[in-house]
Specification:
Layout: H1 3-8, H2 10-19, E1 34-36, E2 43-45, H3 52-58, H4 62-74, E3 79-83, H5 90-98, E4 109-113, H6 118-129, H7 136-144, E5 146-151, H8 158-173, E6 182-186, H9 191-194, E7 203-205, H10 224-234, H11 238-247, H12 258-271
Parallel strand pairs: 3-4, 3-5, 5-6, 6-7
Antiparallel strand pairs: 1-2
């Protein structure tokens, strides 16, 4: 059966309606997207991204507030460095590739810390200072001109904490207050929120709506790790951009919906034994 015919089947449309329904109204798919923490046994919802356009557009002032409170201040520094692993790093990776032709010459410049390999850290300093072997003064100037955003839902991601400790030590080496250069993006009640060594650092919820139901590779565009980058690219146009994106998901005939078509295709590939499918 062709993919187009599969998409037209009522069961496919029913599945989509249930998956995108609010929590508690998903019928047989209520357990889809639930992660269970192996340490605590706690259940975590991870399908909030399906309702993200409605959430972001429901409050007419929400995106404007985000722009003025966070995005515009990020423009005041020369460099923006995101320290993140796994799904939290995907927005930066995706945008660095997708918008590579738009980024040169912009302020802030974008950089990603997603490896603890010493060679990667050396390359990071070269990238930040435009010097193969930067002097101490060049490193100091780069730190003064930088904002670091460390992203961890749990606040316990080992690699991200390692990056945090390293950057704090670099600021300490030059007697610069790191709390004015570091932002922690995390979930409420995370390790970043609870542990005393992070008390002085500004902490901002990963999700704009302060929920905890978007995670991993489903982060864009519903988390600040994605939203801030988009805001830096398109400025005041966040709302019309999201309105246009939401309109792209509305199709009278499900067979015309490219997103649903892609989902069916991925499901069929998985049924045939293909795995490790991601974006």
């Amino acid at each position: 059966m062709g993919f187009g015919r599969i998409v037209r089947r009522p069961i496919v449309r029913q599945i989509w309606r249930e998956l995108t329904a609010p929590k508690g109204e998903r019928g047989r798919f209520e357990e889809i997207g639930i992660e269970i923490d192996p340490r605590t046994g706690q259940r975590h919802e991870r399908l909030g991204g399906f309702q993200i356009f409605e959430r972001l557009l429901s409050d007419p002032e929400l995106l404007d507030q985000e722009t003025h409170t966070y995005i515009l201040p990020l423009r005041q520094r020369k460099h923006l460095i995101v320290g993140a692993m796994g799904g939290s790093s995907l927005p930066m990776k995706t945008y660095l590739e997708a918008f590579a032709d738009l980024l040169p010459g912009r302020q802030p410049s974008w950089h990603l810390l997603d490896s603890t390999n010493p060679a990667i850290l050396d390359a990071f300093w070269q990238e930040l200072t435009s010097r193969i072997d930067p002097s101490e003064e060049e490193r100091r100037q780069a730190l003064e001109a930088s904002t670091f955003v460390f992203v961890s839902k749990s606040g316990t991601t080992v690699e991200t904490l390692s990056h945090f400790d390293y950057i704090v030590s670099q600021y300490g080496e030059f007697h610069i207050d790191p709390t004015t250069h570091i932002i922690l993006l995390t979930d409420p009640d995370s390790g970043f929120e609870k542990e005393p060594q992070y008390a002085a650092y500004p902490k901002v919820p990963i999700q704009v709506d302060r929920e905890k139901d978007i995670g991993g590779r489903f982060t864009p565009p519903g988390t600040r790790a994605s939203l801030w980058l988009l805001g830096l690219l398109i400025g005041q146009e966040l709302r019309p951009t999201f309105e246009a994106a939401r309109a792209m998901h509305v199709y009278e005939d499900a067979a015309d919906d490219p997103w649903l078509f892609s989902g069916v295709r991925l499901a069929e590939l998985a049924r045939r034994g293909r795995d490790l499918i991601t974006y």
